[in-house]
Specification:
CATH superfamily: archaeoglobus fulgidus dsm 4304 superfamily
Radius of gyration: 15 Å
Helix content: 25-40%
Shape: globular
Oligomer: single chain
Largest sheet: 7 strands, mixed
Distance between the termini: 42 Å
Strand order of the largest sheet: 3-2-1-4-5-7-6
Strand content: 25-35%
């Protein structure tokens, strides 16, 4: 991948009713090239719209990929990757870092019937997770707007070491710092 290819990484951090969502533009050569921040509701259903808004506010035509940490940020605020792909007109790649049997049981346990049904409907409509080897680590990838092999190549290209792609690593650090600043005041 060329060094100047850019990805927007999105991650979140929460400690109360509102989650800080950070977007970080990172080039494939690991150069950080922009930040954008927003919020979504912990336990809500607004994460997809929040990510769409971050991308629009960033207004960067040079961003080729949208990488997102997870599928259900801010306590099961389930993302709709298909809707995001349509909204940003870019490939969307969700990366998780642990093997699991999925979130369906946890969603059913955490929410009453209607809230659980709505979240499960969105969750089940997403592409399945595929394991991707990155060095000695394995991450789990869902992708829309790009084939599985290209999604794996993108994840590997943006992961210099360890198992966390650089756009997601920096976005997580930024979200935690902003969340700490917001809540410590």
């Amino acid at each position: 991948m060329k060094a100047g290819v850019r990805a927007l990484g999105v991650a979140e951090s929460y400690s109360g009713q509102t989650s800080t969502v950070a977007g970080v533009v990172v080039r494939a050569d690991r150069t950080v090239d922009g930040f954008v921040f927003g919020t979504c509701t912990v336990g809500g259903t607004d994460a997809t719209r929040t990510v769409e808004t971050l991308f629009q506010r960033l207004d960067r035509e040079d961003v080729r990929y949208l990488l997102i940490a997870g599928i259900a940020p801010a306590w099961f605020n389930v993302l709709d990757l298909h809707e995001l792909g349509d909204a940003v007109d870019r490939p969307v790649i969700s990366v998780t870092f642990e093997d699991s049997d999925g979130l369906a049981g946890a969603i059913r346990d955490a929410f009453d019937d209607e809230d659980a049904r709505r979240r499960l409907s969105t969750y089940r409509a997403q592409p399945g997770r595929r394991p991707v080897s990155v060095g000695t680590e394995t991450v789990y990838v869902r992708a829309v707007g790009v084939g599985n092999e290209e999604a794996a190549d993108v994840v590997r290209a943006f992961t210099p070491e360890g198992g966390r792609p650089e756009p997601l690593r920096v976005a997580r650090l930024a979200a935690r710092a902003v969340e700490s600043f917001r809540t410590d005041r």
